[in-house]
């Protein structure tokens, strides 16, 4: 009579599949966290950029008694957008003494930010003579739960 000794070395197929599934779940969680961190970082940059632009606009107003004109002038509903190089460069020229480089949105989509998933900066709706001296400075955040 011949006896065979079974050497159990290695893992069963079920054990390997369980380990692979656990690794896949962990990798998915890490990717989600990285994407959320990137989104949050871009939103933080947007808020910082808008604050810098706002400071430059206020310095401009202190010196000139009005804000720079929008894409259609003053007292009209026109905008200068960061995705439009010509209009954003014109605003940058107006603000040059107060800000050396006018920031653009980190994504800077080539569409107006009032559309879904369009990320750019917009400056406009500037009052001067018929409306009080005000302006809109706008950006779309990726975190829609942010105020």
Protein topology:
Layout: H1 13-64, E1 79-81, H2 85-95, E2 121-124, E3 136-139
Antiparallel strand pairs: 1-2, 2-3
List keywords for this structure.
mainly alpha; 2 helices; 147 residues; Glycoprotein, Type 4 Pilin; 3-stranded antiparallel beta sheet
Shape: rod-shaped
CATH top level assignment: Alpha Beta
**Compute the gyration radius: what is it?**
27 Å
Provide the number of structural domains: 1
Mean pLDDT: 89
**Percent in helix:** 40-55%
Low-confidence stretches: none
Q: Which series of helices and strands comes N to C?
A: HEHEE
Cross-sheet strand order for the largest sheet: 1-2-3
Classify the secondary structure makeup into a structural class: mainly alpha
Count, helices:
2
Intertermini distance? 81 Å
What summary fits the major beta sheet? 3 strands, antiparallel
Strands, count: 3
Provide structural commentary:
The protein has one domain: Glycoprotein, Type 4 Pilin. A 3-stranded antiparallel beta sheet has the order 1-2-3. The chain has 2 helices and 3 strands. With 147 residues, the protein is mainly α.
